Amino acid sequence: MKISHNILAVILLFAAAAMYADDNGQYFKDKRTLTFSEAANLAVSASVDLRNSRASHAVLEGVWDWGIREYFPRISFSVSENDRLQQIGADSFIKNYGLTIDQLIWDGGRISTARRIERMELDITSSRLDRMADEIAESAISAYRNILSSRAILEIKITALTILEEQRRILNQEVMLGLALMVDLASADISIADAKLEIFSLQLDLAEIEKQFTELLGLETLPVLTENVDIYRSVMLPAPLTATVIAREQNPDLIEARHSINKKQLELKYITNSWMPSIRLNSSIGFSGQNYPLNRFNWSVGISIEFSSPWFQNRFNFQTGWEPLSFGQSDRTAMLQNNLTPIPDPSARFSRNQAALALDLELEKYETTLERIGRIAATAVEKCLLIEQKRILALEAAALGIERCRIEEIRLGLGHITRLRLMEVLIEQTQREIAVIQAATALLEAERELERLLNFEPGELAVFSEFYSEYAVIRQQKQH
Fold this sequence. Notes:
By secondary structure, the chain is an alpha+beta fold. It has one domain: Outer membrane efflux proteins (OEP) (Up-down Bundle). The chain is 64% helix and 17% strand. Strand 7 and strand 8 form a beta hairpin. The longest helix has 67 residues. It is elongated and about 140 Å long.
């Protein structure tokens, strides 16, 4: 029967999208397969910019590690020889060897604070690199979804074209028997030509997307994509209030903002404590003589205290030493020195005000971002719910479309409509099937957008929502 044959074709058209995942991997079992997570990892590892940025960050990490050298003493060795050939008197050949040690005792915490600021900058850079990697991974996953969606739509259009060509063949026979008009056959040819043009355009776009996706992954050929766009998959979502709370705790923008606030606080502390003195201890020992072994030596020890502020700069030095002489005698030395510079940099007094203003600005920006992220998270949950309703309605519309195609087949058999009208109904049904694919894809994108707001890995939202639902049920049962 022609009627049952056409109805079966429409049902196969609807099933093409749902069964596409099985077709996607059956013919290439010997080829490499690729999942969402594998695609994300490949894209991240293939990114040259990310690799270079991480290498540069590793260098800065090494520089920061070696900055601990500031806490250890500075040791220097000196060797000299002073030869003098005199016209009157004896010649002299004085040899000198010296060792000097300079150790920081206290600097008001400036070095520690500076290192903490550098550590915060490195943490912010690391956070940005992680976000950069996430963006690359997201671009790979998005391209993956686009390919799946385009392939499913292409499969639907090809199946629909097959059905239309079959209807055109039957219509041609009816025209030859005088049961239909030539104008209907011409209209059918136009519809088929439009369908072929859409398929050709979609194939070109799909080829370009696949090429870009392969380049993004750093591969030469595209592996078999094992994921699929499940049009029957329901989404599990947390409550809007729960999403808001999690987003305010884990959102990457807020985490980076907190790092920036901590950095500004440390900078303000550094400037506030810049007036505190730094204390250094230094000592030296020297050996000298005309011949080896050297027969004279001396040593000294001292302390240096330095103050610095916008209004004055002062450096105080005290040093004492001992140098033995012949016949059990020795010389003792002492030196006291103080250098005072009034008003060295009066404009520096505004540095603290600038640092305080910068901190206030970061705090205001953080509060604004905190409220904005909370609203966006709640809106994202509502958006997912709306797209879920759209997917359900699209499925219902497609199912009703199948029933309508069946009814139109009966009406055609009764002579109430023309075969051209039936072809138009079949084309409308194709658009409904495509709308189902698009709604399912939009749901995946909205779900992933919510996961990124909550700083979740792909697929982690469903696991969390299921766990949260079970926990809420258990808690409710305990209360009763």
